[in-house]
Design a protein that fits this description.
The complex is a heterodimer. The N and C termini of chain A lie far apart (35 Å). Helices cover 0% and strands 48% of the residues of chain A. Chain A is an all-beta fold. By secondary structure, chain B is mostly beta strands. Classes of the chains: A mainly beta, B mainly beta. At the A-B interface, strand 5 and strand 10 of A face strand 5 of B.
Chain lengths: 112, 119
Amino acid sequence: DVMMTQSPLSLPVTLGQPASISCRSSQGLVYEDGSTFLSWFQQRPGQSPRRLIYKVSNRDSGVPDRFSGSGSGTDFTLKISRVEAEDVGVYYCMQATHWPWTFGQGTKVDIK
Amino acid sequence: QVHLVESGGGLVKPGGSLRLSCAASGFTFSDNYMAWIRQAPGKGLEWLSYIDGTSSDTNYADSVRGRFTISRDNAQNSLYLQMNSLRVEDTAVYYCVGDVSQIRNAGDWGQGTLVTVSS
């Protein structure tokens, strides 16, 4: 199985400051059609996961533009340009190139 | 707007069976792949299975292959997960997942239904 390794696993941040989460895959994530199926999800306490980013860098409708995704090959990053209180939660990366599709362990973001 | 509502969770003894349902609305259900993902209490997320619109393409995680069966009824806009030979480690919130573009993008999630396997 493709292992997705996130770091850090815990990320205390100051309101208004930037934050960055790294996700590394154990194999390259380019699919046969040239797409890279790497997504990022936010899970607020008590809620279902919500997709923020798909195919590395495509932001979902309604997702604030302070969220951005980047990367290629086996190294990917989710950045929050200025953290707000509503960003508290657990963030997961996910690969859907190689079955079984797999998630990272999650990064817990909270406010200092 | 896509809306997915799971039901059927509950408490079951080890070795027992349960059938989960997911009612879908807001999109052309029969045109789209659907899937199930679960999350054990306080743990991460695990893809379990997916199915295409005609029920001809299915796949399973090794952890549930041979015990769980995914199916759908396009006339009822419903997705199912038949779970047999349940184990304590199957205890989790089960999410119905879809995406009108590609299921690999996992854009739409239900609220989840809790399955507890315990004696």
